[in-house]
Design a protein that fits this description.
With 44 residues, this protein is an all-alpha fold. The chain has 2 helices and no strands.
């Protein structure tokens, strides 16, 4: 798997890292979950 870097604001990082009672996801899992919500062909 190729790695890449993304930039997120400190506030967004806090939200991602804060305990919410949900299963903790890696950034890769989170991004894939978000991308699965976008219809195919919208991004490529």
């Amino acid at each position: 798997m190729e790695n890449t870097t993304i930039q997120i604001s400190p506030r967004t990082r806090e939200k991602i890292n804060s305990p919410t009672g949900h299963k903790k996801l890696s950034y890769d899992e989170l991004l894939n979950a978000l991308m699965s919500l976008i219809p195919e062909g919208v991004y490529s």
